[in-house]
Design goal:
six-stranded mixed sheet; four-stranded antiparallel sheet; 11 helices; Creatine Amidinohydrolase, Chain A, domain 1; alpha+beta; 412 residues; Creatine Amidinohydrolase
């Protein structure tokens, strides 16, 4: 649910906390050895799939700047600044690269690990030169002058604007990059399954150490410490009581009391692949109203899972979950269930496509999504249940077991 919020929390880091060796978190063991990296052969296959979509959509090349898609196709991890660095993937032939001249050594070090990277052409530009004219010349040298050149929606404006200024015929490249990325391979599904399992295990260990009087930052520190013990960076957005009805959190201080509702939304990254899990529980005894809301949200999550299958419209999955909640008295529309039921997942915590009203895109085997209905009663409490979902050949599966109840959220 909260990819952006989580990144901010992780960046600042939770406060340090002492973890006793004999505690639920202290007894956790690293699972690093379970992660299997994406191979060069799989990245080469991704390039071929991209070229197939380019041919179908009559796009002559795509330009990918620093970010997730560059990593996805080439394994190159490059932060964006005001200086352009990127890969050009033509419909025919191998990718070539544009790099600042003073970054050439660092660039070649990473490019060498990309498919065909040892022989790849690297065009370099000095500080008083334009990288965009260089890129246009590279396209011309490959007979692609005047061709349709795709760029992603995530490309920085300064880069897209620079490409426009050298008179390239720019079109959207998102249908190509997202079109490839949204269909996961068995290796990708295995990494996401591991990431989801690690986060759920971290949540359970932190839950066992929750107590009256703790602050939300202390609980967040437990979640981060549990992920670290399991061998992966991770964390969680922690919300208590009335603040659990604010889906993306608050800056207000919070402290747990007897009967507090606790909502934890978080995840980890395994070989670049994300998890996004939410669990809601009570410290102590839940009220009848809390249990009723939890049961509705659980039924809504199950309804979405049952509806999700190849060929059905993405919007119908949201509709299935929303119908349960509205029929249960928490409607209409977005009144209590205030967001879509799910978002695509993979190397980005939120990526195409989305399970949202008005999205008529048919689901396809091996897409992956969050399944995360919620009911948020302002001033009282909120309940969200979130697991990561894989569309199979004839249905869908959650990558983690569903929650059981507010008082036994991890019961087996």
């Amino acid at each position: 649910m909260t990819a952006g919020v989580l990144r901010a929390q992780r960046g600042g880091g939770p406060p340090p906390i002492d973890i006793p060796a004999d505690s639920p978190i202290g007894r956790l063991k690293s699972r690093r050895s379970e992660a299997k990296a994406i191979t060069g052969a799989e990245r080469s296959d991704r390039l071929e799939r991209a070229r197939k979509l380019m041919r179908e959509q009559k796009v002559d090349a795509i330009v990918v700047a620093g970010g997730t898609s560059l990593d996805y196709f080439t394994s190159i991890r490059w932060g964006n600044s005001e200086r352009f660095f990127g890969a050009v993937i033509p419909v025919k032939g191998e990718p070539f690269y544009i790099s600042p001249a003073f970054e050439e050594d660092r660039a070649r070090e990473q490019i060498a690990k990309a498919p065909g990277g040892k022989e790849a052409k690297v065009l370099v530009w000095q500080e008083d030169e334009s990288p965009y004219g260089l890129l246009a010349q590279g396209l011309k040298d490959r007979g692609l002058a005047g061709g349709k050149i795709g760029v992603e929606e995530t490309m920085k404006f300064v880069f897209a604007d620079g490409l426009e200024h050298v008179k390239l015929n720019i079109v959207s490249g998102t249908p190509i990059t997202a079109g490839v990325r949204q269909i996961k391979t068995p290796t990708e599904i295995a990494l996401m399954r591991l990431a989801s399992s690690v986060t759920l295990q971290a949540f359970e260990a932190a839950y066992k150490m929750a107590h009256v009087g703790m602050t939300h930052t202390e609980m967040g520190a437990l979640v981060s410490a549990a992920h670290a013990k399991l061998g992966f960076p991770g964390g969680g957005l922690v919300l208590f009581d009335e603040y659990s009805a604010v889906p993306h959190g608050t800056t207000m201080p919070q402290r747990a009391k007897e009967g507090s509702v606790v909502l934890i939304d978080g995840g980890t990254t395994v070989e670049g692949y994300q998890s996004d899990i939410t669990r809601t529980f009570v410290i102590g005894k839940a009220t009848d109203k809390m249990n009723k809301v939890f049961d509705l949200v659980l039924k809504a999550q199950s309804a979405a899972l049952k509806q999700a299958k190849p060929g059905v419209a993405a919007e119908s999955v949201d509709a299935a979950a929303r119908r349960v909640i509205v029929d249960g008295g928490y409607g209409p529309g977005y009144m209590y269930f205030t967001h879509r039921v799910g978002h695509g997942m993979g190397m980005d915590g939120h990526e195409w496509p989305y399970l949202v009203p008005q999205n008529k895109m048919p689901l396809a085997p091996h897409m992956t999504f969050s399944d995360e209905p919620g009911i948020y009663i302002r001033g009282e409490f909120g309940v969200r249940l979130e697991d990561d979902m894989h569309i199979t050949e004839n249905g869908a599966e959650l990558l983690t077991p569903q929650s059981h109840s507010l008082e036994d959220p991890f019961g087996k």
